[in-house]
Amino acid sequence: MRLFALAFLTGLALLPRPGDAGTAVETLHHLGASEVVGADGEPLALCLVTRTRYVGQVPLWHRAGGYALATDDCATDSYLPLDTDGFALLRAHGQVASTLPLTPRITFTDMLAQSWGSLTIAALIASAFALRGRRRKRHRGKPAQVRVEPV
Fold first, then answer.
1. Helix/strand/coil (H, E, C) string of 63-77?
2. Nearest-CA neighbor of 50 among 64, 36, 37, 60?
3. Residue pLDDT, tens place only, 44-58
């Protein structure tokens, strides 16, 4: 019964995410204001693009994808991606914060928090091996006792 419940919950977790056609999702995170103005005169904010890989609804891997410029404090789907050279040029001209690294990074704890699916799968595999080892040890630990009686 426990195995059925585990299989059922795993199946639910692997159902496709509503509205997602692919397995990678990009998200914009606001880093701060910039001095750059868009073609329509609206100020552009500096954003961090993160990419998260999913299997169904389980996030497996989360990483920084690069810098971008976007309107509405990064609360939009459209953005202008910045390569390393473009970001270095903006930083050299003082249009973005000079304290940011050329290649974006996310913290280790943020990566772990957003990649909980990988950790859960690893924990389940480790638990399965530990339980299997315990069962084998229990069966192997005691020698068979044979009683011999004189005739």
1. EEEEEEEECHHHCCC
2. 64
3. 999 999 998 887 777
Nearest Cα to Cα of residue 12 among 64, 75, 56, 70: 56
For residue 49, the cross-strand partners are 28, 66
The helix (H) or strand (E) run that includes residue 7 is helix 2-13
Question: Quick check: 48 and 87 in contact, CB under 8 A?
Answer: no
Separation of alpha carbons 78 and 44, rounded Å: 12
Average the pLDDT over 70-99 and give the result: 92
Q: Which helix (H) or strand (E) holds 30?
A: strand 24-37
Rounded-to-integer distance, Cα 37 and Cα 6, Å: 52
E strand map for the chain: 24-37, 43-55, 58-70, 80-82
Give the sign of the dihedral formed by CA 111, CA 115, CA 119, CA 120.
Answer: positive
pTM comes to 0.66
Of 112, 133, 99, nearest to 31 by C-alpha is 99
- What is the token pair recorded at 48? 């961090």
